[in-house]
Amino acid sequence: MQPSDTKQRLDLGRLLRMQAMVTRAAQVEATYQAGQALVRAYLSPRDEMLKILEPDALAELRAECQRLFPDIEDPGGFSTTLPRVTSARLAAAAHEAATQAQNASGMDSRTHR
Questions:
Q1: How far apart are CA 31 and CA 3, in angstroms?
Q2: Which residue in 47, 49, 85, 88 is deepest, having the highest Cβ count within 10 Å?
């Protein structure tokens, strides 16, 4: 018997793998060295979730996902010509991505360090 509701057809295994990815990202220390990797570790499952929620029948869930898990700008790589500027940019991006990943995983960002 095929599920009649689009929401029932969501691949549970896929969702659990994405949850594990976010949980692992939430546990990474937010340093400038991890900045770009943390942003990508947060964005990858977020973007995957938005693809899953593309059908019109899931528009309400998609809007909720976009509201709860906002987009983060990729900070780019480290520049040896402007080390202080890029270190600060990468540190800020790492902190934002770690906080968002912690929120997405259900961790309390105030107590996780």
A1: 45
A2: 49
Q: Do 12 and 74 touch, CB atoms closer than 8 A?
A: no
- 28-63 residues labelled b (16+ CB within 10 A) or e (exposed): bebebebbbebbebbbebbeebeebbeeeebeebbe
| pLDDT tens per residue across span 85-98 | 999 999 999 999 99
Separation between Cα atoms, residue 92 and residue 6, nearest integer Å: 38
Other CB atoms within 10 Å distance of the CB of residue 13: 7
d(CA 72, CA 40): 9
HSE-CB for 53 with a 13 A CA cutoff: 16
pLDDT by residue (tens digit) across 12-24?
888 888 888 888 8
